Amino acid sequence: MMIFLIITLHLVSGPVGCFDVIGYSGGSIKIYCQHHLYGSNDKYICEIKQNQCVTKIVTQGQKRWNQKERFSLCDYYGYNFIGQLEMILRPLSLQDAGSYQCGETGGWNHTVNLTVIRDPCCLGPKTVTGYLGMTVTISCSYPEEFEKKTKYLYKLQREHFTSVIRTSETQKGRFSISDDRSSKVLSVRISDVREDDGGVYYCGVWSHGMLVSYESLFTEIQLQVTDFSVIISVSVCVALLLIGGSAMIVYQRRHKQTRGSTSSLNSGNKENKAISHSASDYEEIRDTRAAPLYSMVQLPAGLSDHPNNVYTTTW
């Protein structure tokens, strides 16, 4: 009876696989769960804790895409009822490490062991500035375990990651890529930069499996696109303001010095005038004292012809 129950549960739940996935703190992880028994039931991602699977996100019924906090889930299907459940978790933290399960309610499921690593090479995000019509280079270091893997540059567009170029292509339109394995640096050059080139990019690797595949996006780069002519105009305005300010300061200083000299000169002239005026007054006083004073005393009538008349002169 017990054996029959175990077999029944296995047939209901489907085959169970366990797959290892590696992510980096501050980056993102994109996990693909393949399934061949596509149905209309809800698809889910849950985290296994203490023998229980705690639901993180679910796609319900005809809704094949859903987002909840840092999780997003999308269900694709193609020919022959082959489907693919895509889960994105970003940004990753060390606390996200653990076991997860992707599956369909009452159907298939796969178990994924997620390891989150903190590596100095992959700390981000970082910002790069590009100028319209010019060339910009996006560079990111990668961990040693990815040395021989194919590297990708992805662009985040409406919660979906689009592959821009990979190391096996070298050149793709305006994008070119190079991988320096000695220094473990991935570089992507974008020529003739356009406004729509701006956005969020990720450097990452692809690890392919039969039932579970994943993309580990380890470095986030924010590309800001700016018009270079605007930068030149702003620089010219700043330079003119600085020149004008400096000229104003020099003018004010010279004006103060000139005003001080004029005040000193005027003060000297006033003193000279005061001295000259005093000297003039002194001369006038001297002249006044030097001039003789005559006082005529008129005697009574009848005495003027007297031979003994006396005239007094006063000095």
UniProtKB/TrEMBL annotation:
The organism's place on the tree of life at top rank: Eukaryota
Cellular location(s): Membrane
Gene3D superfamilies reported for this sequence: Immunoglobulins
Record GO cellular component, one term: plasma membrane
Keywords, comma-separated and alphabetical: Membrane, Signal, Transmembrane, Transmembrane helix
Positions of the Immunoglobulin domain: 18-117, 125-226
Main location (coarse class): membrane
Keyword match Signal: yes
GO molecular function, one term: transmembrane signaling receptor activity
Signal peptide: 1-18
Transmembrane residue ranges: 228-251
Chain segments carrying region Disordered: 259-279
Protein name listed in UniProt: Immunoglobulin domain-containing protein
